[in-house]
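hey can u check if this looks right to u? its 199 residues, i copy pasted from the old doc so theres a chance i mangled smth
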Amino acid sequence: MLSRELEVRGAFAFQPTAYPDERGEFVTAYQRADFVAALGHPLFPVAQASQSTSRRGVVRGLHYTPAPPGTAKYVRCVRGRALDLVVDLRLGSPTFRRVDQVELSGSGHCAVYLPPGVGHAFVALEDDTIISYLLSEEYEPRNELALSVLDPELGLPLPRDLEPVLSERDRAAPTFAQAAERGLLPDHAACEAVRHAWS
């Protein structure tokens, strides 16, 4: 499994090897040794596995969880195609406010790891796109915060040929400036403390 660190420190893309034959294809979506080699620790203790199905144009996010409790994610596309967006929202991080993107697809098998405090969104590029998530914490509505994915200050690279379809919650999410003013952005040191607890 190949790995590369994204522009957001501590976030990685993982590319497993696919083994096709006359029966179909076999892929190992996670391998402990490769994860440890890239991050220095195995995958976080998994508290929840979730899956979403989206039609073309659906945008989910920008979501994040401050620490504590801090939630890490391991995200992959099992069907369809999506543009995955990663944003460093951690105050004090050396890559604060940096953005990166990874195209995920059911045929490409790439996965993205996001450490606690990092913002995550994706855009479904095809109908019936299925995204699978492993989460380090169980979903608790009061802990998951959102920022406006359409905030021009963030300048997220949303595809111009798609009309974004958002939930009411995501449509009403505050801008980056509003969240900063309200003290809603995560602290880098607190997020790192959560991550180091898994080592």
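The first strand starts at residue 2 and ends at 5.
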